[in-house]
Amino acid sequence: MVKQPSNSSNSNSDLSKSSSIPKRSVNQPKQIRPRSKPRAIKKDALDIRPARSNVTRKPREQASVSSQEIFYDNTKTQAKKQSFPRLKLGIRALSLIIALPIIFFGFKLAVSLNAAVEKSTGSNIFSIVDFGTKLKGEEEGRVNILLVGIGNSDHEAGNLADTVILASLDTKANQVAMISLPRDMLVKIPGYGIDRINAAHSLGENEGDRGIPLLIETVESNFKLEINYYIRSNFDGLIQAVDVVGGITVDNPEPINDYSYPCDYNPSLECGYFLTQGAHQLDGAEALKYSRSRKGSAAGDYSRAGRQQEVLVAIKDKALSLETLLNINKITELIGLAGDNVKTDLDLAEIKRAIDLAKGVDDNQIISEVISTENFLEEVAGSPLGSVVRPIGGDYQAIADHIDTIFLLDKIKNENSKVAIYNASGVSGRASELASRLEQVGLRVVEVDNAPLAQAETSIEYYSDGITSTVDYLEQSLGLNASLELPDSEQLYNVKIVIGQDYNDY
Questions:
Q1: pTM above the 0.70 mark?
Q2: CATH number for region 75-383
Q3: 491 φ, ψ to 5°?
């Protein structure tokens, strides 16, 4: 991110170390991409979503949470939170695996159902649909759907959103990314202060059907993205859905030895759940345990989040298998289960459009990630909220950038670009900080140094037209236009970034 240069002089004490960097003509940086204002949430807006003209990232100020806030700014939320047994936390959200294959991937089921109805009656169930409809975000190339799993009214603390997955569709590259946001991650909930992300839905529901709007606003403001649609599900239909498709096959990546797993007949008792590493055929009850268990693996909740995504894909595969598609009774049962347990703001025309977009998505085009302590999070010691995590150093920007550019990351690694960063800002340490961020997403930084002279404006130059994903990422992250230049014969890098006095830590 850049800011307008100040008229006051900056100290150049950190520029005493001279570097010989090529003098090139530098394009004027473009204005930062327009950003949308935070959305006003209406009390009756659960299923009525305003039209949006584009997908923009929100200002960083909304996402910045200080370390002091992380530890202490939670008094307002604490007054409204519910107490609940931790053993019951995992089960309530897991039935969103019904929602994703039926509504997100499983649009193809509707196509098959339509074919059967048309053959029998001569009528097309999509005949009333506006075929010119496009999804929100489609024109900009990305559709974001928030998948939310909650419990039921008969479960204690059933309104907590213990599964939150961002499902993003790249409409130009036909890719899907599923990003799990851990339930114990601290975020700033608008109007409530700091709390776990899973509390946002419950707090909104306490005010009268505002759970989804408040959770969406929380995700948008903390991670500077736009949620185009949501799918919310309870877990009542999970076991039935898996059983209807004849069970699913999973490949368990590590042994599960969960001695604390509750008993089926009495959740207050511990019977344990154990599963060996390798491929397993699971029925509905076993699929629930596989998705719910959190204490029997090395990474705890993060392993569970990965298994939840695996189950999503497994149900999708089985639901779209020839065996299921040729069985009209199974299709009808699946759609009925979704109707009883799933709520979404996708209308019929948008569902039809999503069918067309889903046709080009293969399993090898699905990116599955879990935000965890292995990448962006750290544990918070001494928090009054108990066992919680936050972004490393309280920096939500790194996660926001990662989500924003997730479809570029594999391409960036394959391009194997070499980046040089020079500090001409007058502020010590900025080049090293930027280098750390770029290395985290897979860019190779080959040189970090001070520039010989101060420079007012930040610039990006690149010296090869075969690194388009790298250039796209840098332009998006820094809010600048990069310029293509001729390389020097002895040059060891193919991208050069000069940090100017207008730089303000993207």
A1: no
A2: 3.40.630.190
A3: -70, 135
